[in-house]
Design a protein that fits this description.
The complex is a heterodimer of chains A (about 100) and B (about 350).
Chain A (H helix, E strand, L loop, with lengths): L19 H34 L13 H6 L1 H12 L13
Chain B lengths: L2 H36 L7 H8 L3 H19 L4 H6 L2 H7 L15 H5 L15 H8 L11 H13 L6 E5 L7 H7 L4 E6 L2 H11 L5 E5 L12 E7 L7 H14 E12 L4 H14 L5 H6 L2 H7 L2 E8 L18 E8 L3
Parallel strand pairs in B: 1-2, 1-4, 2-3, 4-5
Antiparallel strand pairs in B: 5-7, 6-7
Helix pairs in contact in B: 1-3, 2-12, 7-10
The chains are: A mainly alpha (about 100), B alpha/beta (about 350).
Chain lengths: ~100, ~350
């Protein structure tokens, strides 16, 4: 499923700021913050394991990726963007008071 | 979605909610107290509190976070719903051959369909995996308690046990059995009937009960059961009453009175005893923001009069300490107004 499957067309989301633009923008911020933490958690776990195994040397992860590697990441990148941008629609995902 | 990413995201959301609980809430409370001190008259009700906090920037963020951290928890990219959906085949198979007694033709009440409680998309009843989603979500309902959340149910069971040992127990609105299993274990000689509107929830409750000999999970409406009059010596519920509209709430208590034997006991763990207009304002706001619109009618109900009218006696409203070491009166952190509503059916 995609998270947009849960959007309800006739239920505008609750708003808490004078300008609802801020409500939506802060949603983007928090979605991004979640993603950043997920990545940080994964990267730290990976680096710990690689270090223990002696697989990488300093600088291996810093080099520019190939075009092939970037293409392979496209689907994951699209899902990442949806998680951020869906906040802009201002719709409930679970039926409740507006 | 891999398991590590899901857990990391949910941990992040819970840590954010904990910050909200322990850092933002006391700030809001202080803002309110400062404003109340300067006000021309002492705030009497939630509307007075709302007027004092109207436009406060931190309160706006407090409200936003309460609403949307829950939305992310259930429906965000790393939400409970997409996570379980990706594991549908395996989880669905685990619920086949359930020993739960399901009622596929049971009509879901309008109020149950109209609002998705807890911001759970589709509610806790419309998808076969909803029991699993609810179970996982319930692990982080109360940030203050952390890993001690299960302790809440044991403490409630102990309170009930301290006043006698029941033989026939009805757990109304049992969900996935989190409230039921402690009763089964505490009273192994008792027969426990666990009922809930949600088929997916009672299926999971039965799955989790394994071969437990003294419990039966059934899909049934708690305020309209098929049990005979005077069938039970204990009727209980946990976090159910506040999900009911006022009319159904009255029917719920009336049904409890009907199925209880004279002298039988009723013990419900819910949210009722609320101290002061600020706590009431925060609690009603929580109800609105978390898709639980009947928090307010329950809190405003005249419990003593309503239960006495139904033939209950020895009616008690008991503020409930949900975990060891928590203070019922401290304002250091946000907490639910946990309350045990206790009564006995009068002996004619």
């Amino acid at each position: 499923m995609r998270i947009s499957d849960t959007l309800i067309e006739d239920r505008p989301e609750q708003t808490f700021f004078e300008d609802p633009a801020l409500d939506r923008a802060f949603g983007v911020v928090m979605a991004l913050a979640t993603e950043v933490y997920v990545q940080r958690n994964r990267m730290r776990a990976l680096e710990r394991q690689l270090e223990v195994a002696g697989v990488i040397e300093n600088g291996d992860l810093d080099r520019e990726p190939s075009d092939e590697e970037r293409l392979a990441e496209a689907e994951d990148r699209d899902a990442f963007v949806e998680g951020l941008m869906i906040n802009l629609l201002g719709k409930q995902q679970a039926k409740g008071a507006s | 979605m891999d398991d590590r990413s899901f857990v990391a995201a949910q941990d992040f959301l819970l840590a954010s909610k904990t910050f909200w609980t322990k850092r933002l809430y006391p700030e809001i409370r202080q803002t309110y107290e400062d404003a109340a001190e300067k006000a021309a008259s002492k705030p009497q009700d939630p509307a007075d509190v709302a007027a004092l906090l109207d436009g406060d920037t931190l309160y706006r963020y407090f409200s936003w976070l309460e609403r949307h951290l829950q939305r992310f928890k259930y429906a965000g990219r790393y939400g409970l719903v997409p996570y379980h959906d990706e594991r549908r085949a395996e989880l669905s198979a685990s619920l086949r051959n359930t020993s739960a007694e399901l009622a596929p033709d049971l009509e879901m009440p309008n109020y149950y369909q109209r609002v998705d409680i807890h911001q759970h998309p589709g509610g806790v009843w419309s998808d076969e995996l909803d029991g699993y989603v609810y179970e996982r979500g319930a692990r982080s309902t109360t940030p203050l308690m952390g890993a001690a959340h299960a302790d809440l149910h044991h403490r409630f069971t102990e309170l009930v046990a301290s006043r006698g040992e029941p033989e026939n127990i009805l757990d109304m609105g049992c969900g996935f059995g989190k409230s039921t299993h402690p009763f089964c274990r505490k009273f192994p000689a008792a027969q426990v009937e666990a009922i809930d509107l949600s088929g997916p929830c009672v299926s999971l409750g039965a799955h989790n009960a394994g071969e437990a000999p003294n419990v039966r999970f059934r899909q049934m409406n708690a305020y309209d059961t098929d049990y005979d009059d005077n069938s039970f010596d204990l009727v209980t519920s946990t976090m159910v009453i506040h999900e009911l509209p006022p009319t159904e709430m009255k029917q719920f208590f009336a049904e409890a009175a009907r199925v209880l034997a004279p002298g039988g006991r009723m013990a419900h763990l819910d949210f009722y005893a609320i101290d002061g207009p600020f706590a009431r304002f925060i609690h009603y706001g929580h109800g609105r923001r978390n898709n639980e619109p009947f928090m307010e009618p329950l809190a405003e109900m005249d419990m003593q009069a309503s239960l006495a009218e139904l033939g209950f006696t020895n009616i008690e409203v008991i503020p409930f300490q949900e975990a060891e070491g928590l203070s019922l009166t401290s304002h250091d952190a946000w907490r639910f107004p946990w309350t045990v509503i206790y009564a006995e059916k009068a002996v004619d």
